[in-house]
Amino acid sequence: MSDFVTLKSNSDFRRLYNRGKAVTDPALVVYYSKNRAGICRIGITTSKKIGNAVERNRSRRVIREAFRKVCPQLNPCYDIVLVARSKTKYLKSTYIEEVLKKIFENEGMLKSESDGE
RNA sequence: UCGGUAAAAUGGGCAAUCGCGGAUGCGAUUUAUCGUAGACGAGGAAAGUCCGGGCAUCUCACGGCAGGGUAACUGCUAACGGCAGCCGAGGGUAACCUUAGGGAAAGUGCAACAGAGAUAUACCGCCGAACUUAUUCGGUAAGGGUGGAAAGGCGAGGUAAGAGCUCACCGGCAUAGUGGAGACAUUAUGGCCAUGUAAACCCUACCCGAUGCAACACCGACUGGGGUGCGCCGUGCAGCGAAUUUUAUUCGCAACCCCGAAGGGUGGCUAGAGCCAUUUGGCAACAAAUGGCGUAGAUAGAUGAUUGCCUUAAACGACAGAACCCGGCUUACAGUUUUACCGAUAAG
RNA sequence: CUGGGUGUGGCGCAGUUGGUAGCGCGCUUGACUGGGGGUCAAGAGGCCGGAAGUUCAAGUCUUCUCACUCAGA
Which of A37, A49, A102, A111 has the fewest CB atoms within 10 Å, measured from its CB? Predict the structure, then answer.
């Protein structure tokens, strides 16, 4: 069912910010790097810049929902950190889903590509 | 009819699919896990953290000091700085509205500039005396000007001129009586009363021990050093053993605390001073009785996505996310409804 | 979550016991210089984060509120 695990420790986030690849979009920022766990691990960051608690929660939920939809198509060997930006709270999950798909396609992280469609 | 201001209420409902947290039930066994079903699952302010309480700990208990808070009175309450009623003061023609509202003859401080003078004073003026018209001495706060504030106000008597010096009225103070639960109101008598500031220090009365669920308890891991009767003082009582004859002190152990190391799990964790309706008591806040209702409890932190139907003018809409729990206060708030007021237009 | 601190000219800061707010840098104008820099002289720029209150008078005192920031864990 759940193909991904959440990143929790501060050191994991630090590692991705320093060594991972970064892709920016007006909607959000994606940091990622390969891991050997054979499973997707994901962390979502919503800083205080975005707004109050309601707006931060909203951003986090929308991003998680979008990622959940995209997740099955993803190669299960990545650590990913998704950072919300100030625009994120006004967007819908369907839009973010498209953005995420586009980013992962460009970076060659999708499963369909490795299978050779 | 339209627009605005203030206050109060409300802050859509039902259902489906995928996804999340999950009390609990069932099955399996390695008795603590796995699988499966799964009720239920953010607010009126959950916010700010401004007050009050529960609960927990501080090797015991009591009293005081320091420190902090509140300030008319009566009641409500677990308690409050909250609420209700009432009194005083201020504003208003009135209905009514506002109000941190003890003490300034217990003491200290401050009152810039202006002004003669700021808590004690004589600049101009008025009056008297000396007497050379000038000037000096004395009396005087009625008049002048300054100031936020100038010695209770105003009128009459009185006087050399004046002055509560005397008197009437008013204001304020003290004592006594009456009414009231009380703040206080009112009447009589007395004396003739020294500005403001206590949200300056302070005094008076009353209240408060401190720290907070990251409290605290248990399990697991880790094991070195330092200290100790609640911020201070006093009194009682100070766990066990040893040393010095006793007093008392010192040492060791126990207990607890702090620093270093370790920083994981379980409990605490949600039924509570609970909510609603009716009746009774009360002006009211509120209380009592009877009946009914009712599972958020996460721990990097659960409520999202898609869609249908109904109510509706519209419902995608505002402010906003529980983190131990309650009672208040304060602040934020789209749309709708109600009440009060204001403005414009139209009609009478 | 708990407990502190700070908001004052464009920037960085003073302003103790309430009495009409200053300093340095920067800015404008003028002088000295052939010009720049530098120095000297003069000047502008503030309702002290916001709203109430106490007081004769509030940057200062009290209450509420809005930002920013630090510490504990």
Answer: A49
* Chain B: bases < 7 Å from a protein Cβ: 19-20, 42, 46, 300-306, 320-322
Question: Which residue segment(s) compose the domain that A42 sits in?
Answer: 4-106
How long is the CA A111 to C1' B149 vector, in angstroms? 90
- Check if the interface score ipTM surpasses 0.85: no
**A93-114 pLDDT per residue, tens:** 788 888 888 888 888 877 654 4
pLDDT at A45 > cutoff 60: yes
The answer to whether the beta carbons of residues A90 and A55 sit under 8 Å apart is no
- Two structure tokens written together for A60: 């986090």
CATH of the domain at A34: 3.30.230.10
Q: What's this model's pTM, rounded to 2 decimal places?
A: 0.72
Distance from residue A106's CA to nucleotide B152's C1', rounded to whole Å: 95
